Task: inverse folding
């Protein structure tokens, strides 16, 4: 039986906002053996990060709802779906039906308020992402309406790029606003995260760490995930 929750019902627990989370990104996993690869990190992962690329918002294509639904049958992990798409609104209900727990849309595409509303109606945890060159001010108006802010630490589209340290100032701005408003939300970083860069992002205020190549290019992926966790703790 697919482990999919009907829209509007509580989903897998995301955990307490603001706590340390390691989210391996399957983008760097072997797509021909996805279930096994996820099994290799399951015990060391808090969330599973699923990168969805539409060939339009970013110049790359990856996976969509059918793969999410297939993976859902193999793991109870919280699915953190990062939608690098120009028109995510057309697919949110498909992701919800497929077993996504949280979806994150990019602020650059516009229509943010309606998309956040749609995610809520579907019972999804709602995230908002911003590219490295998008200023904090773009997400500031929505901080009361999101569960997660994703600060991209590379330009989205590909795994294996170098961490952009200049994004850390923006992470600090988000952290400051979250603390000042006592907001219950997660601050996620994604791109070039490993045991060297994760502590720098943590120091700036991030609490969710997405890592693709650092984890899945390691011969023992769980060990790489634990190394990142230890580097922060
Ligand atoms: C990039 C994706 C990332 C990617 C990160 O567009 O959003 O989630 O998997 O990969 P690494 O950790 O290799 O930078
Ligand atoms: Zn991502």
Result:
């Amino acid at each position: 039986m697919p482990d999919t929750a009907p829209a509007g019902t509580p989903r897998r627990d995301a955990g307490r906002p603001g706590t340390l989370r390691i989210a391996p990104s399957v983008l760097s996993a072997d797509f021909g053996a996805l279930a096994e690869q996820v099994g290799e990190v399951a015990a060391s992962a808090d969330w599973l990060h699923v990168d969805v690329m539409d060939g339009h918002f970013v110049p790359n294509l990856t996976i969509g709802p059918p793969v999410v639904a297939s993976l859902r049958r193999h793991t109870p992990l919280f699915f953190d779906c990062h939608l690098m798409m120009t028109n995510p609104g057309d697919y949110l209900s498909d992701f919800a039906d497929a077993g996504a727990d949280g979806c994150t849309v990019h602020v650059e595409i516009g229509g943010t308020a309606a998309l956040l509303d749609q995610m809520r109606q579907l019972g999804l945890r709602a995230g908002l992402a911003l590219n490295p060159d998008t200023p904090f001010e773009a997400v500031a108006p929505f901080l009361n309406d999101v569960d997660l802010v994703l600060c991209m630490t590379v330009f989205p589209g590909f795994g294996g790029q170098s961490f952009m340290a200049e994004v850390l100032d923006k992470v600090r701005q988000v952290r400051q606003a979250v603390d000042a408003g006592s907001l219950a939300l997660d601050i996620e970083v994604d791109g070039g995260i490993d045991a060297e860069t994760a502590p720098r992002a943590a120091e700036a205020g991030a609490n969710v760490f997405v890592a693709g190549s650092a984890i899945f290019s390691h011969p023992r992926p769980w060990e790489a995930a634990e190394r990142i966790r230890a580097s922060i703790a």
